[in-house]
Amino acid sequence: MTMKMVTLRIDEHTVEVPAGTRVVDAAKKVGVDIPVFCYHPKLESVGMCRMCLVEIGRPVVDRASGKVVLEADGSPKIQMAPKLETACTTPVSDGMLVVTTSEKVAAARREVVEFILTSHPLDCPICDKGGECPLQNLTMAYGSGTSRFIFDEKMRSAKHVPLGELIYLDRERCIQCGRCVRFQHEVVDDPVLDFYQRGRALEIITRSEPGFDSVFSGNTTDICPVGALTTADFRFGARPWEMKPAASICAQCPVGCNIVYDVRREAKSSGKPVIKRVMPRQNESVNEVWICDKGRFVHHYNESAERLTQPLMRVDGELTPVSWQQALETAAAKLKEAGKGLVTLAGGRLSNEDLFNLRELTRAQGGTTLLHTHMGGGEWTRQLGLNQGSNLGSLGNGDAIVVIASDLHQEAPLWWLRVKQAAQRGATLIVLNARPTRLDAYAAHALRYQPGEAAQAVAGLMGNHKTPAAFQTAREALAGAANLVVFFGSDGLGLTGTRALAQTCADLLMQSGHYGRPNNGLVGVWQHSNDQGAWEMGYAPAADLVGSLKKAKVALLAAADPVGDEPALAKALAGADFVIVQEMFLTASAEKADLVLPVAAIPEREGSLTSGERRAQRFYPAVPAPDGVRPDYTIAAQLGQRLGLELEGRAAGLVFLRLAQSEPAFAGLSYQALSTAEEQWPIVGRRDLYFGGTTYDNNQGMGTHLQPVLKAGERPAAVAAALDTELMDAGDNLLVLPHTRLFDQGSLVRFSRLLVERVATAELRLNPATAKHFGLAEGVAASLNLNGADASVIVRMDDALPPGAAWLPRRVGVPLWAPAAAQVKVMERD
Amino acid sequence: MNELQKRYPEDVAAILKKYPPEFRRSAIMPLLYLAQRQDGHVSGRSVTDIAELTGLSTTDVTSVVGFYTLFHAEAGGRYRIQVCTDLPCALRGADDFLALLQKELGISVGETTPDGMFTIEEVKCLAACHRAPMFQVQGDGDITYHEHQTVESAMQVLKGLRQQAQKSGKEAA
């Protein structure tokens, strides 16, 4: 499909762009900055602010002959339009002449700025936006310097309006461009901001409960061209010019959004650099110019006073501070002693380098490496995952996406956004889940299955299992797809269920040949940022973790807290001779450990993460690590050194080189490759913050996909035999299904006190019919006996849920990782 | 439970029937008009009900209430005296007219007379610039225009409205 190209002149430039391009974008491409306020390249243009007025001329066409009239010198005769036109709404046309430098245009800009400023308080000295403010910059560049307006008639409005607890609105500063309103409506479909009243009384309102109820709300502060919208987190926190940006990767979910930590030194922290805010960094293949609120606001953990900063060893039953030397020597001796009895349980928040060194260390002793996760199937995402050239942003008409057993909106908000947009561009979206989710609204086929029957549903999609007629229609829609990406998650499923599901999804992709080429393959909606990286290096969850831990002589837990997760795991671990924990905080597991080694947080060190799309991306040090902590890969290397094992521990980049030599999936990759950046569209950052908002330009690298493990047409090494099914019927008990919420009670979220109102609590949601059957009513407190422990929950009715089961979030203080049968009883009121 | 639907089941059904399901948001204007039939304003409860009926957010419904001067989010008098003060009207003395009217009624713009009869409002163009000063009266489910006005003639109109209200009050009793 070739795009029709159009050639036009903009000032002294000649430019060729696809038909349909707006004049403002065409100008941007040749470096002509047309000032804008209401226009944003990711939003529909509305032409509201009038700042982009330019002179436009078009070739004169002779009506009789239909030919372009020529001047004496043979050039086409250009007829200038009698009035200025808005460059943000006018599409380019062949032979067009755009003039942006004339006195007429300059006068228009001067007057528009003057008009906008009639209602603006000009309180730049106390405004958070000052220094990176489009209005400030464009006033300096194009404003007249004086105003003919009567000062006393300036609008006075409320200056500290909380739109919910995360975002504040200053009504005086608002210039009514509507970028925030359009972002919430068009981009993320949370229509919780809108205009109220009109004329000079116009204001932005929200009426949602809680206020400004959207997990993408922080992005409106980036695209706001004035200081009207600010985050409660950063408000009055620092001036933009005082901060230094450090490129990083968000580690809150497997999407791997590119971010920037803005850092400055503060008296408050004795002159130490601290993180002041998290901003998106453009990567059009990953997060475009957006991030979710979890990624933006969960950054306070690293400065917590609860951080561990020295090794602790159990002496006479008490955890006692010891030197690193003593700690490492004790640990090395124990690892040697353990030999094959070493079990290393690693969490998916470790970097590629940490995981690699830990694996080498464990393998050298003959020990076992395990991934601590409730979700299986990585052996399939490793073989059939996405590879170079893949970009969800390029999926559209003729392509298909299947999302099964996942509430992407809560588990990986940016994937939800990108899948939604692909569907809006014409991709066929098929959503399968036991319960309704927010993605259903964009799906061509939203299909339901019985709780636990996710794998069967995919089999049904292939025609291998008896399913309702709707599946047949969906199967037909899938048949002709040029590209197919399958996302599978763990909504209502545990380890066994997800493993079976992944395998069935793999069958689907292999049967239809959708793998081994760009934009085709399987994506796991993991819980952690680097679960995919762990799978790539051969880490896998134990089928029976209790049994594995029971057998361990020495357990090495890195970024994993089995004791806090489940009583049965705590019991199993109690049998180990020696437990070593590498952690940032004194977790429940650390409290029980024999040796605790304090580690550096992501913003304090270098490393790389592999996203769920198999994209390896680097993060850089933003703030210095507290004295006494070390990165996990260094600890592993230092332990190796004491065991006669030569591991790289000097720099993350050197570890990565070893990883690249050892693992075929990483072959040929290096930190240099990961840190290359390409020119992206839209152009953001740089000196024109008014065009794309305050999102950072990407100069520090966009990452690279891992090498394909299976090429198109190749068959996988082995396919496992029939798989166990998960609990689907709880008999007389209540079947409780786990699901993941964005703001859970995970160990890092709790340090961002701002989010406390959004954090999920132990609420048991179920259909009223099911509730009635178990004698439960709305709002009652109930006791669940589940996985050997008692937990109290609040009952919530939900008509939308299918009867026969109840849903409870993971990580809300109740040990629930897989479907479980629970005895439920209403608690007596006091 | 959707109270609006409960109170006016037939009207709601008739309004919704006019629009295909995918254009249900178009029903927002007639539904708002229906919602303020009884109390002269759209209550927060009605906003929630209409949001539910049309599939819009409560924020979007509120936004429509705010945009149109014929919808009211706050309770007011039985009759709303809406004076246009846009530029052409102002050139023909609408500002002075409004100031005198306020003085005469003893209330400011946005306020209601103690007897609950009249609220004065300042509104945007009513498309009668050439006959300014002018105002419209919204009340008793009706809208009427009054053009070429002086304060004296306006007070006559209000007197008529008071009588009308008393009459209908007696009839009801």
Shape of chain B: globular
Fraction of residues in helix of chain A: 10-25%
Which CATH architecture of the largest domain in chain B is right? 3-Layer(aba) Sandwich
CATH class assignment of the largest domain in chain B: Alpha Beta
CATH topology of the largest domain in chain A: Rossmann fold
- Can you identify the CATH class of the largest domain in chain A? Alpha Beta
Which regions of chain A have little confidence, pLDDT < 50, spanning 5+ residues?
none
Q: Which parts of chain B are unreliable, with pLDDT below 50 for 5 consecutive residues or more?
A: none
Query: Distance between termini of chain A?
Result: 71 Å
Tally of structural domains of chain A: 5
**Structural class assignment of chain A:** alpha/beta
SSE string of chain B, helices as H and strands as E: HHHHHEHHEEEH
CA radius of gyration of chain A is 29 Å
Q: How big is the Rg of chain B?
A: 18 Å
Mean pLDDT across the residues of chain A is 94
Number of strands of chain A: 35
Distance linking N and C termini of chain B: 32 Å
pLDDT averaged residue by residue of chain B: 93
SSE layout and pairing:
The complex is a heterodimer of chains A (about 850) and B (about 170).
Chain A: E1 5-10, E2 13-18, H1 23-29, E3 53-59, E4 78-80, E5 85-86, E6 97-99, H2 103-117, H3 134-142, E7 161-162, E8 167-169, H4 179-187, E9 194-196, E10 203-205, H5 219-223, E11 229-231, E12 244-249, E13 258-265, E14 273-280, H6 293-297, E15 312-315, E16 318-321, H7 324-338, E17 342-347, H8 352-365, E18 368-372, H9 378-384, E19 400-404, H10 408-411, H11 413-424, E20 428-433, E21 445-448, H12 454-461, H13 469-479, E22 484-488, H14 495-512, E23 521-524, H15 531-536, H16 545-551, E24 554-558, H17 562-565, H18 567-574, E25 578-583, H19 588-592, E26 595-598, E27 607-610, E28 615-619, H20 632-642, H21 652-662, H22 671-674, H23 689-692, E29 704-705, E30 734-739, E31 763-766, H24 768-773, E32 781-786, E33 789-797, E34 806-809, E35 820-826
Parallel strand pairs in A: 1-6, 17-18, 17-24, 19-20, 19-22, 20-21, 22-23, 24-25, 25-26, 30-34, 31-33
Antiparallel strand pairs in A: 1-2, 3-4, 3-5, 3-6, 7-8, 8-11, 9-10, 12-13, 13-14, 15-16, 15-26, 27-28, 28-29, 30-35, 31-34, 32-33, 32-35
Helix pairs in contact in A: 2-3, 7-20, 8-20, 8-21, 9-14, 12-14, 16-18
Chain B: H1 3-7, H2 9-17, H3 28-35, H4 44-54, H5 58-67, E1 79-84, H6 87-91, H7 94-105, E2 118-123, E3 135-139, E4 142-146, H8 151-172
Parallel strand pairs in B: 1-2
Antiparallel strand pairs in B: 1-3, 3-4
Helix pairs in contact in B: 3-4, 4-5
